[in-house]
Amino acid sequence: MFDIVVVGADGSDTARRAIEAAAELVTMSGGQLHIVSAVEPNSKRDKHVPDAFRYYGPDGETDALLQTLSFIAKKHGIEPTMHAVEGDPAEAIIKTAEKVNADLIVVGNRGMRGVRRALGSVPNTVAHGAPCSVAIIDTTE
């Protein structure tokens, strides 16, 4: 089945549903779950801070979000590995999947309708650039 599953998440309800689905898959397969959240690049976060004092790495807000999201997996008996990755959300998910040699990426379908569908969305970008299988979960209400 799927030994290493990567799921991309932000603080949205749809992302939480994607984590639920990924956790259920990992519970069935006995695999590992990696939760990825993208962090805005330092150049955008700290424009007015001199380089010598600029913070490089995930911010406290992202760390807190990942801790909160980890509880979704933990209620399924899974201890997820958390990744705060700087950059575009789709690229962060793909990069992490490559790094951990994932068998499956799970993303929600948010942004796959309307204008964003034509202009591109995280699920579309991940589906076209993934190094492994992709499950696009229906996370709409």
**Low-confidence sequence ranges:** 49-57, 112-119
Fraction of residues in H or I helices: 40-55%
**Order of H and E elements:** EHEHHEHEHHE
Distance from N terminus to C terminus (CA atoms, Å) equals: 28 Å
Mean pLDDT: 82
Kindly estimate the percentage of residues that lie in beta strands according to DSSP: 15-25%
Major pleated sheet: 5 strands, parallel
Q: Looking across the biggest beta sheet, what order are the strands in?
A: 3-2-1-4-5
What structural class do you assign from the helix and strand content? alpha/beta
Radius of gyration: 15 Å
Q: Number of helical runs?
A: 6
Briefly say what this structure is.
The chain has 141 residues and is of the alpha/beta class. Helices cover 44% and strands 21% of the residues. Strand 1, helix 1 (13-29) and strand 2 (32-39) form a beta-alpha-beta unit.
